[in-house]
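On clarity, I found the account of how folds are encoded harder to follow than it need be. For illustration, here is how one protein appears when written out as sequence plus structure tokens:

:::
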Amino acid sequence: ECDKEDLTEELCVDPGKESCEKVPLKRKRLSSSEHSIHELVLVSLGGSQWQFQLCSQEEMFSWEKCIKSEILHSLCRKEVVSLDGVRHTVLGNKECADCGAASPDWASINLGILVCIECSGVHRNLGSHISKVRSLNLDSWTAQNVKALENIGNSAANAYWEATLPTGSKPGANSSRKDKECFIQAKYVSKTFCSNEVEKLI
């Protein structure tokens, strides 16, 4: 037998909201009648409504808990992005931007380049104000950060950072760490190889 108390639940749902904030609830008590039941009404900010009729207060609270959980799960869900385009289609990204090592799997998100693991260690020592290093495999990525890598890439970045680099002076994949450190310092900190005639891309 259904409870005589009539309750209406309104859940305010904002599909575009990005933060994991608690979804506000409004509960309105209606007049009791002999044939009244519990009602659960979902109301979106777009004006759409879904109405459910339930036979007990316990059932209503159970539905409320499940729906709120699903809403919060949706709001808190991590963004899933693909880095395949960054690895394989952006010009120059098949090799480390600083030493030419194949298949780099680290990135500097503010410089917009991919680097090998050894060069990434040198970048970390520069400080995050120079280079913000992330792993393509181990770290979480947002669409905004991926877009930055797609818009720049190793070839475009090196056209700026290595504009006046003398032929043969760039370290290779098998060069010593010391040689790589000196080169990377000169390239990004001292900006030794930049040219004023080249438009800045970063």
Notes: The chain has six helices and seven strands. The longest strand covers residues 7-13. The CA atoms of residues 42 and 48 lie 8 Å apart. Strands lie at 7-13, 25-29, 38-44, 49-54, 106-108, 113-115, 133-135.
